[in-house]
């Protein structure tokens, strides 16, 4: 018996796929459009470009947004998740088909002995046995609401029913009963090379497809497709990470050293397949495994019994019909084994020998005949090269216009005579020498390229260091300028902080950048840009105030038209205010004396140089009040717009310094004058 493969996948389609509304409890549900009228047209996530959708799915809704409690049924954290479900996963008809495989039952049949030995070395027996019925609706909801954190634990968050669930990859591994962070990892930036699978095929096989695989690899492919690497499209093609998985199984099967470890890091494989399916909007893998995760993560209060389940079957086994069971011809030894992928048939006249020794492994059986097989392949390659040379000679003969007979095809000796003459060894040595020269030349070129790469790396590192230092210096300068503007114009601080918040939200939506207590250069730029408008208004108001103030302080002078002139005038304004206070005092006193002299012209102004002592204390209060009232009335006659300078100004600082120097100068010696 053999395990049913991809070629029969068409007969085993899921017959339980229905509309997502049919699976949901409390159906029917109102659509968002009918519940929220006059809503703007939104973008369809199915038609969104891959880069934008990938960036969208790599963010974490559960950290960035509060839960939208208005969503009917509370099955989504936010409206964006519901739209993703409706655009992408609700129309999705089929999940990737998976079936459990009971390797213990298959091991009872020697037909699967080699394939089971390989999957055992790769550590896949336990994951292949897992069987769990699943709900397509819950699995689709899982993928529509899934968010993967960037922490070391690789935590996943999603919605199941109305419950917000989370689990680390370690927790997922414990639920599946497999180890984590052990074994070989196949996902990476490297490109899968289908040509590495050339040795897995018979001579009729086509690399990169299922047709023509040797028996053991055909069995392994069906094992992988049913469990760890389910197919999401063309079952006849081998591509993506399945190429690397098949190549790893090939190396495992050919390596007789059972101490060498070929274990696969299963959880890393599953994690990357789930993540790739999420961001690329492909069909959903691992529905039984995800259902197990959901069942062990949802709270007891959440009732999931309303979601119908799809049966997760155990894959049935059947035996492939051999390509040929005829006795191999003497000159085609190993031919049937190469073409059919099974051992050569036994002659019917030869009685069956009772097996008294341990059965040889696949590796041992094939290694015993490896030299013969290699010789036959070399013979076929020698004939092919000879025919290519003849074809080239015939083409050149026709192109040259030669009227003579064309070159005759070469005579090919039989395999036995060719092998006895050791011609293949001569050709092999010639090819080995030529290939060795190519390898040495390639090695020299690689050495030169490596030197160039190191030099370029050093240059890039130096430039990167220089740019980093420049960026830091610019950031510090922008920070100092921003702080200076904040200190000079505190009125702009609210607008600046609001602009920084908007800029950070925009970057978070576009790149997923997290918040920081420190300002970046972009934050400082947004802050200063927000300060420009209020600072401009304040500057305009300040200029208007200065232009109104300068004519009042210096009525005889023209108002400066430039900012520097206004600033210079405002710097002299405090002293000018003092001068105007003294002018007002002199003007008031002059007007008071003018009133006195207008009535008493015989008053001696010289007597008014000093004031009598104690006069203020002897005046009655009513007389003081009357005097103040009269002084206020006299003040109305003063021209307040006329500046009254001091007729006897005190000496300036320069004149005062010159007088002091003159006093300190030594007197002339009288004796010298005599």
Give a quick rundown of the structure.
The protein has 674 residues and is mostly helical.
Q: What is the CA–CA distance across the termini?
A: 148 Å
Number of strands: 3
Contiguous runs where pLDDT drops below 50 for at least 5 residues? 1-37, 323-357
What is the average per-residue confidence, as pLDDT, rounded to a whole number? 79
Topology order in helix (H) and strand (E) letters = HHHHHHHHHEEEHHHHHHHHHHHHHHHHHH
Q: How does the major sheet shape up?
A: 3 strands, antiparallel
Shape: elongated
Report Rg.
48 Å
Which short descriptors sum up this protein?
single chain, 674 residues, mainly alpha, disordered N terminus
Describe this structure as you would to a colleague.
Among the domains are: 6-28 and 44-295, no CATH class; 374-421, no CATH class; 572-664, no CATH class. It is built from 27 helices and 3 strands. A 3-stranded antiparallel beta sheet has the order 1-2-3. By secondary structure, the chain is an all-alpha fold. Mean pLDDT is 79; it is low at 1-37 and 323-357. Helix content is 53%, strand content 2%.
Secondary-structure blueprint of this entry?
Blueprint: H1 20-23, H2 32-35, H3 50-57, H4 61-64, H5 79-89, H6 103-106, H7 113-121, H8 125-129, H9 136-145, E1 147-148, E2 156-160, E3 163-167, H10 169-176, H11 215-226, H12 241-254, H13 266-280, H14 287-295, H15 335-340, H16 362-368, H17 370-400, H18 415-420, H19 423-488, H20 493-511, H21 521-553, H22 563-571, H23 573-599, H24 615-618, H25 621-635, H26 653-664, H27 670-673
Antiparallel strand pairs: 1-2, 2-3
Helix pairs in contact: 5-9, 7-11, 9-14, 11-12, 19-21, 20-21, 21-22
